[in-house]
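One-letter codes give the sequence; the fold follows as tokens. Both lines appear below.
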Amino acid sequence: MTHLLPRRALLAAAPFVAAPSVLRAQTQARLLVIGGGFGGASAANFARRTYPWLEVTLVEPKRHFVTCPYGNLVLAGTRQIGQITHGYDGLRARGVRVVHDWASGIDPAARRVRLAGGETLTYDRLILSPGIALRWGAIEGYDEAASEIMPHGWVPGDGAQTLLLRRQLEEMPDGGVVGLAIPANPFRCPPGPYERISMIASYLKRHKPRSKILALDAKEAFSKQGLFQDGWAQLYPGMIEWVPANRDGRVTRVDARERVLETEFGTRHKVAVANVIPPQSAARIAIEAGLTDQSGWAPVNPLTFESRLAPGVHVVGDANIPGPMPKSGYVANSTAKQAVASAVALLRGEAPPEAVYFNTCYSHVGEDYGISIVGVFRPNAEGTAIAEVTGSGGVSPRGPLPEQRRLEALHADAWYESITKDMFA
């Protein structure tokens, strides 16, 4: 398959193509953003940059944001946690009011948000980007206490889970087995577990070469599968065993104290280190506000990302149901801009701008070894669903292409630097 644009052109063009033109007239309005990650921070920065007359408030409990992207490189030892930690001073300098507190309740009818600290905020339009919740108990035996022994590392928080998993890898004796439990779709960052396998293998190859990785998967296929498996065969021969669902790869129970992963047909795998990535849903605040359906995710209008269940609330980032688009940082950034532009247009009584969404998912497989997948998406003609633009998708070419892999690793680094600057001003 071929790309609609070369990767460098797509990376450079996407923030400008995705951003609609400034509206002609300017009227004061209050835009409230909840969540300071890829969706929320992108929305707040874009709103102030594009519509400087908007009053923009961002509610985010953490004073620093640790990104999920590049967290796997911390496990490999090629990045430090400080290199993927970002603050909000740039957004303040842009004119965003940043409130470090928990949003404890949303009243969409009254257009009010209650904060844990007691303050109540009112809004004209709300951009909600709350992220995900882990479904504790979806795997028997896996709860918050178990995650302190078998870390998930999938909700970054302050980076403690990523650092715990890193420390366990360092303390594991050479020859130990690292077990991963990988969930069924949908979940945050579909290629993420397989980049994690790669980065753990990179660390083990250098420091504990007799060790193995056992990846137990609740699916029978995964994103960029051929590219990942090519890289594993080339870089880590004999180190990685991937077990799909149809070969009893679905983990249904864990024993954290004994570090045992048990699959649906009763096979018990005792491992030295266990990384359990459980099934997920939209974050609790979206569920409690009545913004999710039986799937646990928030249905939205594909043109505006306005909730189908609560007018005036636009749900962006990983919490929504994005059709064929993955739950990725790039999609969160792209859809956040459309949501902001749509919110402004609807406040003005105007039609929302034409929508186009971009995604590029880069993955590191080894040192100087990167791969990627690209897609461009639009709402269909009826405006009822999102579809991939015909001919726009593509993945890295397969084969022994060391220069291609080296360049894609560099492009991944450039993407990370670019998107975090776009988020945090």
Notes: The two ends are 35 Å apart (CA to CA). The longest strand covers residues 369-379. Residues 1-25 have pLDDT under 50 and may be disordered.
